[in-house]
Specification:
Layout (H helix, E strand, L loop, with lengths): L3 H15 L4 E6 L12 H5 L4 E7 L2 E6 L3 E6 L5 E4 L9 E7 L4 E5 L6 E6 L23 H8 L6 H5 L10 H11 L12 H20 L45 E5 L2 E5 L8
Antiparallel strand pairs: 1-6, 2-3, 3-4, 4-8, 5-7, 6-7, 9-10
């Protein structure tokens, strides 16, 4: 599933290509993705000008001149094709066409993505956004905020950080990478983290997300940037997907058997057993 850096990259690509343009038509090739697309979707969107974009967690909000926002989620395998050809791509279920002929296609082979509408002034009250935690790249996401959110959580830190009510937008890859940089074992109970540990963790989360966005995200299976290029941050992964490979911080040490992999809540966690000791 595309994570925050991938969604941010897609949103920025859409913003550059589409903001300020009028949508002349919307082609819906099916009435649903993961859920039903609103029956009035085409009528509500066609004829409107795109006034802005916003990302909230892993959701993209495309704001329109009639004070409605299109809510878009890429799901497991969704991607956006900008300047898509007139003949739709395979699994291109929705196409936005601008008045000057630009085409934006939503491709979703597994159909776990979604499209919906919400009044722009009520975005924060939207059913999938209302309970979200702070944005990890916002100034409001601080060590004291995260420490307060985790102090009563008896679940593993890795699991807690994936809870969108704690912090929005974080996914498996970047939590693994941030924990590695902080030296925290993914099974460490969240409630045991000290304030200094939490401060380092917040810094690591912001750093790894910003670095990934600058690199265009990580390319996993179906994810590509809107213009068709691949992201490159996967080349900078230090532990994710590197089971058995040397840890970049302790290569060649005789007691380092390489990165280990465990399963937590049905997801793979990668960590260095020397750098991230379970206390």
């Amino acid at each position: 599933m595309p994570e925050l850096p991938e969604v941010e990259t897609v949103m920025r690509g859409m913003q550059i290509a589409l903001q300020g343009h009028e949508i002349s038509d919307v082609i819906l090739r099916r009435p649903d993705l993961r859920w039903q697309i609103p029956a009035a979707f085409r009528a509500s969107v066609a004829g409107q000008t795109i006034t802005g974009f916003r990302r909230r967690g892993k959701y993209i909000l495309m704001r329109l001149s009639n004070n409605l926002s299109v809510v878009l989620h890429l799901g497991m395998s969704g991607r956006i094709l900008l300047d898509s050809p007139e003949a739709p791509a395979l699994h291109e279920h929705v196409t936005f066409i601008t008045a000057d002929g630009r085409r934006c296609g939503f491709v979703d082979p597994r159909r776990f993505g979604m499209l919906d509408l919400v009044p722009t002034g009520q975005e924060e009250q939207y059913k999938f956004l209302v309970s979200m935690g702070p944005e990890p790249l916002d100034a409001s996401f601080t060590d004291t905020v995260l420490h307060a959110a985790l102090k009563d959580r008896k679940s593993p830190t890795k699991t807690a950080l994936l809870d969108q009510k704690i912090v929005s937008g974080l996914g498996n890859i970047y939590v693994c990478e941030a924990l590695y940089r902080t030296g925290i074992h993914p099974q460490t109970l969240a409630c045991t983290l000290t304030l200094p540990q939490t401060k380092r963790l917040v810094r690591a989360i912001k750093d790894v997300l910003n670095e990934a966005i600058a690199a265009g995200g990580s390319s996993l299976k179906d994810y590509v940037r809107p213009e068709g290029g691949l992201g490159y941050f996967q080349h900078a992964w230090r532990v994710y997907g590197r089971k058995g490979q040397p840890c970049p911080d302790c290569p060649g040490l005789p007691d380092c058997a390489g990165v280990e992999q465990i399963t937590q809540a049905g997801r793979s966690s990668f960590f260095c057993p020397l750098r991230q000791k379970l206390s």
